[in-house]
Automatic annotation (TrEMBL):
Signal peptide start-end: none
Domain Cation-transporting P-type ATPase N-terminal: 6-77
CC annotations in GO: plasma membrane
Entry protein name: Magnesium-transporting ATPase
Transmembrane feature ranges: 63-94, 240-265, 271-298, 762-783, 803-825, 837-860
Organism this protein belongs to: Mycolicibacterium vulneris
Amino acid sequence: MVVLDPEEAADRLLRDLRSTSEGLSTREAERRLLQYGPNTLRHQRVRRWPVDLARQFTHPLALLLWLAAGLLLVVGSSVVATAVVLIIVLNAAFSFVQELQAERAVEELAKFLPQRATVERDGMMTEVDATQLVPGDIMLIREGDRIAADVRLLDGAVGVDMSALTGESVPVVRSAAMADANVPLLSAHELVFSGSSCTSGEARGVAFATGMATEIGRIAALSERVKADQSPLEHQVRRVAWLIAAVSVMLALSFIPVATLAAHLTLINSLVFAAGLLAGMVPEGLLPVITLALAVAVRQLAGRGALVKRLSAVETLGSTDVICTDKTGTLTENRMVPVAAWVPGRRVELDDRAFAASAATTSTAVRSLAGAAASCNNASLHDGGDPTGDPTEIAILMAAQALGADPNHRWRDAQRRCQFHFDPQLKLMSTVDQVPDQSSVVHTKGAPEAVLSRCSRVLDTGGHPATLSAAGRGEVEAAVNAFAAEGLRVLAFASRELTVNEPQPQRRTEAERDLCFTGLIALLDPPRAGVTDSVAQCRTAGIRIIMITGDHPLTARAIAQRVGITGEHPTVVTGDQFERLSEAQLAALIQDNPEVIFARASPEAKLHIAEALRDGGHVVAMTGDGVNDAPALRCANIGVAMGKSGTDVAREAATMVLVDDNFSTIVTAVHAGRRIYDNVRKFIVFIFAHATPETVPFLVFAIGGGLIPLPITIMQLLAFDVGSETLPALSLSREPAEPGIMARPPRPHKEGVIRAPMLARAWLFLGAIVAALQMGGFFYVLVKAGWHPGAPVNGDAPLHHAYQQATTMAFLGMMAGQVGTAFAVRTQRASLRSVGVFTNRYLLAAIAAEIALAALFVYAPPMQSLLGTVPLPASDLLLLPAYPVIVWGADEILRYLLRKWAP
Ligand code: ATP
């Protein structure tokens, strides 16, 4: 096999790669794919199992539990110690699995958005999945592309961001014309590498390495691990968990003197109780449940077309209060149809093809416009096949065809001498073409004011160049405004024939000057179906929408009005006006004008707007698709990139990628974010509600001062902790949205996830009712058997069996009460009926599992001896089904009253 030197002369390299500048045949590419394998990096699993697993056993809450277990062991209570260790192990395993799940959910997103590459196969440019690239493929690299193989450039020049390889994020220039030999590969000027991205320019090159043979494949730390950033949510919950742990420690510690002095328990026994109480109260299950809830949300969102790259973004989505959206493709379909053309003095309707064709034959001006539109274009119309290229350019090419020009791209490419790419900042694109019977001609198209400002002449009605007077400009502007007011997208065209001795322009300023205005083409890009509804939803949900578009102010305004973003009189700020604004003025403008549109906006404007909004305390979602949008996407709280039309660079900078480019998907994601946040609050209330029934028995015992036996054994408490918490909490994360979720304002960004009313509801209401029922059951069974305060219930006392029954009743009462709590917390304010009693199948399954577990705890002989449970008579058992109904019913009444008093 030939040893490749990618720095050798291009023709030699092509020969060594057995390729040509026309690329490979599909057949050969398939063969090579078998030989070299798919172009993927084998992710070396850097997950270090033992370390990651060990972390689950050593986080602070687990350490606290270890302490309790150690204490129990020292005082000789090995059974309880084992139970506590079991809790630690179960929890660690659960957390570990959750983390894996969460990582996988984010990793899986890659499947939804395969990376594409443009290659020449069988002499034709085609898009292939980047995994199909093979050495020898001729690739086209354009601005915004993520480069998918190591490539030697053959022609053209590109700016590349090589930070993935070198850590240096300032783009470097790589050009076919700057061949280096004998320099380190990464510094060679004619080579670009997989993993870097193209920030400007366009070039063709030959792939010389793919997959693991690429430079990035060689770099050891190639596996990008999912960013495991701690979300604010997790951060807050961690803090509260600590607070509760601290309170538990204090409670447990204060229990010891009370139990020994007042209730005359031995010191050892009170230590055991204290440690058990501590283990029961530490909310160790909360964090993994939150992680899982977020991971589930990421999966669900992916199924609906929104790929969220960080778990924490789900939470941010829920508090989003401003969406900055562009227009083309997001609010509109980006399927443009040419509607009309205009040359001075004449409007030509393009939907009437016969009329358009006759206009072309009779008018030199129309023919020139058609020629410019066909030349200054990179789209292709294929007979019988779908057109390829940018939708604006496809529509323009269709217009050119309707006006009589030849849309054949081969002919166009053959006559093209050079090209100045579309620059979103300038809003212009130009080509220099060798037109038959003329010397070279500059063809320029772009935003009308950008083109017009570079025109000194105009093709008059007779098709002859004439000086462009102020009146002539006025006439063009009036035509543009008339189109734009109809919501049409307008592009202007101009040209300049180079004089015989004039050299071919090297810079765009040399080309785009002194132009002769040719005409306008107006395109219709209708709003997407469903966008109006989504906009209306945003309104009721208190989310402000700001349109930031590169398009004309009147077009922007017409579309904004049509989809309901603004009313009749929005404030429209154009690019020029924007540039004159100071930071303070921009902040005031955004603050004071609820309906503001930024038109002819540059990517930098997006960045400034995002900054101003963030400084104003808003949570901003911002869309973008170009390379230059990346800073704004990073600055926004939620950067939203387009899956279809966006560049790879924008997709990398974004937090969320819309598979279908649709605005409505952002609203769906916000809805999901709100729902998940609500659900997290629901299971926090559920888990916290455990605390009261877990502590009250000990309080009763302590206050009883030896007259009342302990209403629940420590092992029962731990069994309750294991058996009743995790599954229902998990299933609550699947709760459907409460009605009216998009009819309330966004959650204030600074508002904590745990609020005082939630704690009151958990501890003082739901938990208190469960505790009352539990204690009621305990005393009922005991008193029924003839117990009176102070009567002995220990091992050989006649009341011992009744005492065991009573603790079993208390234990089952807690479990039953928690079922009621689970149903109660399903809604925060609404009635359960409004979401449907049986709509959460997961919860029903979790409750069934909990009942089965309770039966096991009470009826399986090994469990009986471990927990001290005994079977209950049917008359006692029959009381239990009422417990959940009472808990849930009381909460239902409370919610009803709250809705009535504080609507
Ligand atoms: P949005 O920002 O909402 O997506 P947009 O597509 O109009 O709107 P840009 O892509 O930045 O934004 O385009 C800005 C302007 O540049 C367009 O309104 C149009 O006048 C002009 N333009 C767009 N595409 C081309 C092109 N291929 N060649 C020349 N000019 C173009």
